[in-house]
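INFO  loader      accepted 1 record
INFO  loader      residues=55
INFO  predictor   begin
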Amino acid sequence: MRVSDRKLPVAAILVDREYYSFFKAVKEQSKVLAIAAKLDNRRDPRAITKIQARL
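INFO  predictor   done
INFO  writer      dumping tokens
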């Protein structure tokens, strides 16, 4: 998807007519929670999910 303040398109998913861009992939739960807390402080909507590693 294209975002007005970015030069390149951003990968995103569409869920219930809302777009979510991919932010970061981390393995440690503590880091995931720290990132989520920062986003919560900014009131940014977020979706966190576990994905399988590709072999």
